[in-house]
Amino acid sequence: MTWFLIFWTLLIIQRLAEVKIAKKNEKTLRSKGAVEVGSSHYKWMVAMHASFFLFLFTEVMFFNAISPTWWMIPFVLFLIAQVIRVWAITSLGVFWNTKIILLPGAEVVAKGPYRFIRHPNYLVVSMELLVIPLIFGANVTALIFTILNILMLRVRITAEEKALMELTDYENSHGEKHRFFPSQ
């Protein structure tokens, strides 16, 4: 249980640090004339992610979820996701955010993992919502939040891509790329 509590706490610290980065980036972009889109679903996305941590904690601590013998597989996938997360955040720089904040007329970032796929950060989140619970045997949490995330991303990506096409050169720079996996 100690290993789980350390891991869980570090994840929360990571998310809080990301929120701080996002707020700083939002302030910078808004000062340059950026606009927010998709704000109506944002509160639901935040609620989903906060609930993930509560469900995970509850399933592991109170329903005695036990790490499977193959826990190392989802753990390695989690570590890979962290590398892609940092790569995506640093590639976007000031344009990275937890909200959909767009600077009209800005050139769409097409470096780092964005050279290969349109939404590497969403791929990372999708991986995490599946593999983090699997590390600890929290299979119910993995199933529920994988499904909720699929539903959320259907709304989120639609809103984001529509706004990107209206406000930037997105179609020209990313139109041929796959959303989550590189072209074959």
Overall tally of structural domains: 1
What structural class do helix, strand and pairing data support? Answer: mainly alpha
Largest sheet: 2 strands, antiparallel
Strand order of the largest sheet: 1-2
Overall 3D shape: elongated
- Percent strand equals under 5%
Low-confidence stretches: none
Radius of gyration: 17 Å
How many angstroms does the end-to-end distance come to? 42 Å
Q: What's the overall average pLDDT, rounded? A: 93
GO biological process, one term: methylation
Transmembrane segments: 41-63, 75-96, 130-152
Subcellular location: Membrane
Keywords: Membrane, Methyltransferase, Transferase, Transmembrane, Transmembrane helix
What this model shows, in words?
This protein is elongated. It has one domain (34-174). With 184 residues, the chain is mostly helical. It contains 6 helices and 2 strands; from the N terminus they run H-E-H-H-E-H-H-H. It has helices at residues 2-31, 39-62, 72-92, 120-135, 139-167, 170-174; strands at 35-37, 100-102. The longest helix has 30 residues, at 2-31. Strands 1-2 form a two-stranded antiparallel ribbon. 68% of the residues lie in helices and 3% in strands. The termini are far apart. Helix 2 (39-62) packs antiparallel against helix 5 (139-167) and helix 3 packs antiparallel against helix 4. One of its GO terms (molecular function) is protein C-terminal S-isoprenylcysteine carboxyl O-methyltransferase activity. It is found in: Membrane. This is Isoprenylcysteine carboxyl methyltransferase.
